[in-house]
Specification:
The protein is mainly alpha-helical. The protein has eight helices and no strands. The longest helix has 52 residues, at 60-111.
């Protein structure tokens, strides 16, 4: 919409009369100068877009103040919610870091002092049924893909997958006291 020359003059007078006051007021509440400027500029942009007839206002000062007050409230409400969300995310991150730290400390204390870890793992693997053990060893210790194992043993890929699932289940049970060790070596 194209502004008339008369509106341009009115708008300029209002802008020059109120911009500084509105900016100072907003800065008292939203703290950062650029946020205050953005709020005030948005108000004047809206006034320009709507091309309100300034002479029709009984109390233009009150009207502009009310717009500014409401925009500042909206801004502060949004910033408060953003800050609360950021604090919750930070709090969750700190909890996760603590859990990981404690987990690593426990792993260090428990497993590094264990002298027979290799024997425990080997016994768990040896306890698997023969076919299951063979497939597991080929996959996890020899590094062969399931498709290659299926071809070499002349069985289906589904059989390889189901035997691996059985191996994981049995090893997880056999190494239940060593869950972190199980995850480190086999997952």
């Amino acid at each position: 919409m194209q502004a008339t020359p008369i509106y341009k003059v009115q708008f300029e007078k209002v802008y020059l009369s109120f911009y500084s006051k509105m900016n100072r007021f907003a800065r008292q509440y939203v703290i950062r100068e650029e946020d205050a400027e953005n709020i005030v500029q948005d108000i004047f942009f809206e006034l320009w877009e709507k091309q309100l007839e300034f002479t029709s206002f009984v109390n233009l000062n009150g009207f502009l103040f009310m717009m500014l007050k409401n925009r500042c409230i909206d801004f502060l409400r949004r910033k408060t919610l953003e800050q609360q969300a950021a604090e919750e995310i930070q709090s969750e991150y700190i909890r996760t870091l603590r859990l990981k730290f404690e987990s690593l400390e426990a792993l260090d204390n428990k497993f590094l002092n264990e002298s027979n870890i290799d024997t425990i793992i080997q016994d768990a693997i040896e306890s698997l049924p023969e076919k299951c053990r063979k497939i597991f060893v080929m996959n996890k210790l020899e590094g062969k893909k399931q498709k290659v194992i299926a071809h070499e043993l002349n069985i289906s890929i589904n059989t390889v997958e189901s035997q691996m699932a059985i191996a994981y289940k049995k090893l997880k049970e056999a190494l239940k006291d060593y869950v972190l060790l199980f995850l480190f070596f086999f997952v």
